[in-house]
Amino acid sequence: MGWREKAKRAKRLHRPSLKDWECDGYYRSFRDLRRSIEARNGTYESFVPFATAAGHSTSGASLPGGPAIPAIIDAGQVSPKEFHRSVEGPGIPAVIKGIPEREGWPACRRWADLDALEADPDLRDRMFKVGEDDDGKSVKLKLKHFLRYLRANRDDSPLYVFDSAFDEDRGARRLLEDYSVPKYFDEDLFDLVGENRRPPYRWFLVGPERSGTTIHIDPLGTAAWNTLIAGRKRWVLFPPHVPKHIAKGKGCIRRGEDDEAVHYFDRILPRIKRRAAENDGTGDYENFACYEFTQNPGDTVYVPFGWWHAVLNMQDSTAITQNFCSQRNFDIVWIKTRTGRKKMAYKWLCQLAVHYPHLAERARELNRRDSFVMKYEPKEVKRREREQHQQKKARREAKAAGKQRERKSSRDKKSSTSRRRRNERIESTANAVPRSEIATSTTAGSDRDCKRSRLGSRAISPDTVMEE
User: Fold this and answer.
1) pTM score, two decimals?
2) Are 79 and 31 in the same domain?
3) What is the pLDDT of residues 410-429, one digit of tens each?
């Protein structure tokens, strides 16, 4: 089976309901769309129709009391401490310039050229995730087959390497040597629970133009960083206060359309912005804002927790991204994790108590505030065990009582049946005596009575004579 057949099979598995992946003709019109987006919006654009009320920045300029969004940071000018204080702490999206070059990432030469990536002996024959089927199972292609598909495809929204399991084999694990976690994000508290227990958190990305990610919030309250090695990406971000149905464009998606990234940026996002302006800052559109910008090679985008975002690959691109939890977003991550990953949360709490006692105490304080009981705390485990023991005991007793009632009911039934059968036998015996025998018996009885009467007369006569 050649790469074309394998790519077709992957597409059938990933989106079985979509029969024609080229139906909207974006292969022909995408370059015009790309030029239109960049000419209309430039590199950075803020859409804040109610800026005075919202207090947000517009067109990269700062309003009184508020920074520009996204913050533009030179990796050589801003220290991690200053970044944590002025950007990560307040939860401001940012574009950081120059990290891969300054830190000397091998990825800059190994990932920037797709031909070199295809020839990489460690990666070319390795299977990478390019989608999911309806059961949530990964759909995979060899990297060499995917890159051939990337060059030849005409799909509106192509398959996209978005792989989080590249550390599971020796060959692909070399990707970890091609980059390093930027100094601004070197604190990740989920490291405490170990690689096997923590949820997926880092992804290797290879995306054809027109591919991308739909609007979403990162899981478990985590923040994220995304470093682009080659190509260009278009981003849109909505602040956390914008409701989910607004960010997702509910009511703005027409029949036959979907929410793939190319459709979102081309059709749905402009409708959302028009509707926001028409609603004049009322209802769910109060303080509405969204921010668009283009990410260029060498840029690292920082997305704070809770921000809605979608990404469209404007050109064929390679990138690396990771989600993380730091002390700045610990509260929200703890609240999400204690319910979303219950067993991991307890293991994490134990490690926090050793390495970050103040965060462990903060987690317990949040639990007390919310009256939250952790499922895997020893006291709770023992309580559940006692309850389970009591429930098992009650079930055993109920079962034994049921069996006793069944036995008693069976004995009563047998006794009743025995009496009924005895009465039936008696009645049957009585009914079986012939009438002639009954008549003979009656006649014989009468004869005996008559004889007794005569004998009695004879016994009385002498006495009567003597008295006379």
Assistant:
1) 0.80
2) yes
3) 888 888 888 888 888 888 88
